[in-house]
Amino acid sequence: MALTGMQIYKLLPKTNCKDCGVPTCLAFAMKVANKKASILECPHASDEAKEKLAVASEPPVREITLKLGREDRKIGNETVKYRHEKTFYNPTVMALQLSDNLPESDVRLKAEKVKNWTLERIGMILEPEALYLRNDSGDKDKFMSLVKTAYEVCPDKAFMFHSDRVENLEAVSKMADEMGIRNPVYGFATKDNYRDLVEMAKKTKGSIILKADDLDQTYELTTELRFQGFKDVILAVGGEKAETSEKLRNNVIIRRSAVRKNIKEMGFPIINYLANTGDVYEAAFDGAVSVCKYASILVLDDPDETPTALLTALLLLRQNIYTDPQKPIQVEAKIYELGEVTSKTPVMVTTNFSLTYFLVAGEIETTGYPTYLAVVDAEGMGVLTAWAADKFNGEIIAEFINKSGIGDKVEEKRLVIPGYLANIKGETEDALPGWEIMVGPTEATGLPVYMKTILNQ
Ligand code: SF4
Description:
Radius of gyration: 28 Å
Number of strands: 17
Helix content: 25-40%
Number of helices: 16
Shape: globular
Strand order of the largest sheet: 10-9-8-7-6-3-12-11
Bound molecules: iron/sulfur cluster
Structural class: alpha/beta
Oligomer: single chain
């Protein structure tokens, strides 16, 4: 938690010597508190003061960088417990597991599956970002072969290496570094081996998964790690076997301790492992708990054991949870030409809320009927919300249509308004003389039938 000006002032020498270029220590403290100066600009500040300020400036949850090829992918750095307080910043990374017990040909096929798994929703590409590679065989050569093949197929994923044997992790770490794998994650670090994994992580700019039996042991180990100056730590309380209720409880305590109580020893990202009971609904519930309640990484099963519907549901949930609630995702407000438009093409109007746009545009495109889609700036709100907030009404629609010049492109001036706003038909007609205002279906799914029967194209 950032220090106030007075708290910073108490850490300064209070001599008002002006060597920092500011007339008094108090004025300097205020500048530091407002991030307009650095404590380093005071040549007389003690090491203790610098250290205290550095600790106070750390984010409540440590930010860790993973690499997806050359691209950085951050986890952690969250500042709130509930997304409506501000927003959640760094979406849960989804990882799929591959075991070195598999033949090389199977590894290749499964890795291909991960590589090709993408989903586009409201203009964003959703995909699993990481591979969690397991040394289940205990054999060093098999583990190295798994890593090599997985990287050959998926060079743009983040990599996590899991082995019970430090020597196997070391061999893989060295090979991965030479191959170009950056910022890998090593697990499990335990009270017995964490020093070895920290050395590995330091050499390769990686991070460690710290497995502890419970929160008390987690606190002890993170205290020791912080004391040693190593902070790229991801917490796995209870390891892979933690049950849903246990994960929920631990995750909530960790996040609350970090952001509300400013307990630095708990300020680390969390990794959860999807419960594998064989029941897809239980798995979906378990995964949803992790996504909603603070997991920075969620490790799913083998790609062939992870139903597409499950991964899709979790990625969509993640997209929703990690969207800033105060900034709806918007598309550009303009006239979109869908299909081979002509002067006889009708005009449909909607708002610039992304989800609305993609639903409407998607349905129109499936009909194959050309359409002008007029997307009005309604501050990213959906149709009914925008109307209730007075951001989408007959006058606003008319102003947009007139400014867009679409009236010069069409002979038959037919404008379809959303079915939920049949009540603004009259005011839109008044505001847009010369246009025939038609009321469309209430749901985007009604568009194909509406276009076929009502618009009669
Ligand atoms: Fe105070 Fe340091 Fe500035 Fe001197 S240099 S006035 S001690 S803050």
